From TrEMBL:
Lineage: Bacteria, Pseudomonadati, Pseudomonadota, Alphaproteobacteria, Rhodobacterales
GO cellular component entries: plasma membrane
InterPro entries: NCS2, UacT-like, Xan_ur_permease
Family: Belongs to the nucleobase:cation symporter-2 (NCS2) (TC 2.A.40) family.
Major location category of this protein: membrane
Protein name: Purine permease
Residues that span the membrane, as ranges: 29-51, 57-78, 110-129, 136-157, 177-197, 204-226, 246-266, 328-350, 356-376, 388-409, 415-435
Keyword Cell inner membrane appears in the UniProt entry: no
Record PANTHER family: PURINE PERMEASE C1399.01C-RELATED
Keywords: Cell membrane, Membrane, Transmembrane, Transmembrane helix, Transport
Domain of life, per lineage: Bacteria
GO terms, molecular function: xanthine transmembrane transporter activity
Keyword NADP tagged: no
Amino acid sequence: MTNLATGAYSDPNQTPPLAQAIPLGIQHVLAMFASNVTPSIIVAGAAGLAFGGAEQVYLIQMAMLFAGIATLLQTVGIGPIGARLPIMQGTSFAFVGVLAGIAAVQGLGVALTACLIGGVIHFCLGAVIGRLRWLFPPLITGLVILAIGLYLIPVAIKYAAGGAASFQMEAESFGSLMHWTVALSVVIVALVLKFFTKGTTSSAAILIGLIVGYLIALAFGMVSFAPVAKASWITGITPFPYGFEFSLGAVIAVTLVSIVSAIETVGDTSATTKAGAGREATSEEIAGATYADGLGTAVAGVFGGLPNTSFSQNVGIVGMTGIMSRHVVTIGAIVLILCGLVPKIGAVIASMPLPVLGGGVIVMFGMVAAAGMNMLSEVEMNRRNMVIIAVSLAAGLGLNLVPTAVQYLPGVIKILATSAVAPTAIVAIFLNLVLPQET
């Protein structure tokens, strides 16, 4: 998509002609589509749901549906809720590590209840987010995002190699040449399109790579369309599909990540106004964006959706096209909602073999880690800050890699200690507060 007269639509309330607005809205969907549905697939797998089964299809539907609803909360707004800016919402990778651990040990009911409660707390942060930002300088947020990416990379490699027995795959085929051929085809196509093309093909590089990988897997006989044939065209949604099960540890873990997610949204809101209008975001826009984040997460949690957050890649589209219109992103939200209400679409996504998904998430998870490193590049690498980085990552990733090191801790605390993200954040915040600044 070429730049359409940068600055001509710098007002969020302006709308390009529909002939331009609809393709732009679809471009926003293409840029975030793969990243939006992937967390649900991973958490479903961790919970032991059948790969490609009806329950996994439902979670994928909810990811699309509530990404669209959360986006409408941002672009259209309700009272103080919503920044009323072109901010695309989607399922957040930041929560994957925590929720996968909770779902594996305590079940999806506990995980989704924690999302609901965490979303309410996230919503409340909208009233105080401006006063909490000092707790989360680039040193802290960069560390947490880096830890999320590093935690997820082994998951990407497992998927690319063909999964494991727990994902309904044959263990003896793990790491086969066929699996790696499919996964690497996704990586290669995505990289070529991202860096050697422009516009829509560049923005949707990962999605197109997944489609190419899917076709190759189909040629190898790795795809089954049986679940697609069984899926209906239209379905309803179910409140509390896995029940309401409260766990204090799960709520604490999700809330910690919610705070980091809220800070990310503040950054995305500011980046959006700078990219599209050349100005700073107002306090009302920042608060409204945080309210929408939290409400979108809470409502999604009721019906089986994972937490939503602003998508940074879509900020890049605003900067690339120069189109600041919030109504363009509203069109994208409507497309997502329609997709979420059609189980056939969810079933097609769920039929994607793990090596195809693995190729895509190798790039996506690597980019999460790279984003954390990019934030840390703003930090002065003196001895104090290097010690905070070293100790925080060692604690977070170390306990995650060797969970038996804390096997005698109570269940709730053990989940927190081995989640990678929570201990990294807690240790980093504590050390940043108590260690003296170097002069």
